[in-house]
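Sequence in, structure out. Go.
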Amino acid sequence: MDTIVEASVLVTCPARNFVTLKITTADGVVGWGDATLNGRELAVAAYLRDHVAPLLIGRDPARIEDMWNYLFRGVYWRRGPITMTAVAAVDMALWDIKGKVAGLPVYQLLGGAARDGVRVYTHASGADVPSLLEDVARAKERGFTAIRAQAAVPGVEGTYGVKHGAYYEPANAALPEEQAWDTPAYLRFAPTYLAKVREEFGFDFALLHDVHHRLTPQEAARFGRSVEDLDLFWMEDPTPADNQESFRLIRSHTTTPIATGEVLSSIWDVQHLVSEQLIDYIRLSVTHSGGISHLKKVFALAELYQVRSGSHGPSDISPIGQAAAVHLDMAIANFGIQEFMGYPDLVDEVFHGGPTYADGYLHVGEESGLGIEYDEQAAARFDYTARYLPVARRLDGSVHDW
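Output:
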């Protein structure tokens, strides 16, 4: 019987921080898993290195479901983003190994292709409305049929989602940057620039918008009603998902589709949202939600209630996590859309292969496993750099949900 002989944790920073798990079997097969948790990378790295890796040695890498339960049910302290990200890294690496041993891409092991490609949306943003419109035009020229639009609220430095340069990276300081936030100003401004996007480019593409947990349920209901005639594909994270029942109020006041879940990490975190049909898209990511094995179960639950997938997938998930997400997207019946930002060029020096983009879709190849490899020699050139996500404060100085 083949067994696991080594499990190592690798941290690198080619333009941004990534944590990667490498599992090696006695037969020399290597599996890669993504363990990146933006702003808390070293917590996951330590959990893996000190508490998980020693448990893997000598175990059968083929027993993926058993390993998942061993790492989740076999531990008294369960759930939470750090634990679930660590478990996800192991799960991804084991699926990668299984695919390589079988000589098949992972999506074939999950039931085969349910579609020809994975539709993706990208990010467009601007410091003002004209620059946002220019960015939307660039995204359309690149073939995207689904675009998320964000613009800076005039006079509000803490606007979410506005990139500086080619890629949006909110983790930007050695200690958290504290940014001012003004909800009334946002509620007045955001519907106007989304309307400008529709006026400029029409309705022949999917338009998305991320509220990023900034509103109360009542405020989110008002926002959703104000943009109904703009036919948004979704409004994302309209309010914090800690109180799942709060989405019922939003649902009762607007028909604008709702997506949420990127900061949640388990099927129990979304059970009520899904079973009560309080959302339309579930945004758990493969990297932060226990891996392929667990997220497949989340999507199977969602399928019963006509809730579709819309997995979180920005550049703070490594290309390994992005690849794992696309393999799962390929195989499920209730796929909705996949987030895709791409990566800075430096990232390509460390991560090789993975899905390819063309005309609004990502495509996985027929390489065995996840189809992506990690260059340890290149990764060693990029030292970890401490970067935190910002903290939002209202105009009176009190802390607000970022």
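Check: The two ends are 49 Å apart (CA to CA). The first helix runs from residue 41 to 56.
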